[in-house]
Amino acid sequence: MKVRFRQTPLLLLALSLPASAGEPRARDLGIPFDFGTPGKWNAITDVPGVEVGHTTLIQGDSVRTGVTAVLPRGKGAGARKPSFSGVFSLNGAGEMTGTAWIEESGLLDSPILITNTNSIGVAHEAAIRYAARRWPPQGDDWTAWSTPVVAETWDGGLNDIYGMHVKLEHVFAAIDSAAGGAVAEGSVGGGTGMVCYEFKGGIGTASRVLDAGGGGYAVGVLVQANFGARHQLRIAGLPVGLELQDGLVRSDDPGSIIIVVGTDAPLLPHQLKRLARRAALGLARTGSVAGNSSGDLFIAFSTANPAAGDAAGPVVLEMLPNGRMGKLFEATVGATEEAIVNALVAGRTLTGYQGRTVVGLPHEKVREILRRHGRLTR
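RE: above sequence
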């Protein structure tokens, strides 16, 4: 998981502010995408009830980290209701806690927290403490968020990762600040210190809403993108990374990506695992080869079937037939690809630990390449 940075001198630029909701995104630059129509926010929050929160830590010249929280059922009265879920590991050089229980039960019963590699432990503890504080254990009711899902990617290039800067209160703040609507991208939350295709990476999101023929369901994706070598990068099917060779920072193909897929389609756990696998195809469309040291870990959940975790007796469930999942597969692939490119577009040049600088994706150069090949939409 460790990223080895070349020690060659890099241009030192002023610290850029994190990209926030409302700034240009990939579609605003004229980058085309396939497979369906985005929802209102073109974000995982287009899945009804899903909320996202960030805590971003940018301090001094060496702290560039944070935590991102995805709440499948938000913070309201339904927050404790489990969701059917499935997980998939494309390459396992990383960590996502809580997956053994998801594999066993098919249920996700916590927020999904994403942070840096060394902050897995504090985020895990914070999730349990948050649940115990909000829903104090009574009698045999002691299981709230006891096996939380916490995922990581390595930000040790730009962040003093052994400084252990993420604290309990930062995780609490990410959960408490979670909301629907537009989602900030780029150098925010867990994505603050992340690098993607040797450009500034981080958090990205996108969505697809199926038409009435496909059931009208929403599929949303959120990624923490921290992977890839520059020469691999594809945007709109073009090998743009081959033409963008300034500011290289990696000596090999390390890194990782966490992909979260949410939907309101009534899918059972085995079907959600099928959906999670399709995220790998969206990842591949951007050029990734899932390198040896890349932790490529995916989780999918459904907000349908809110009674899935009820223990009182038999539960009546809805299930979409497997034969009707094709459009959901397309939506997952398309939204995953777009979420990764959105993370790159939102990334801004950042200087961090030991004076290292990672440059942001040069928007106009990308537009020029796409225009030359007739791939620009505006």
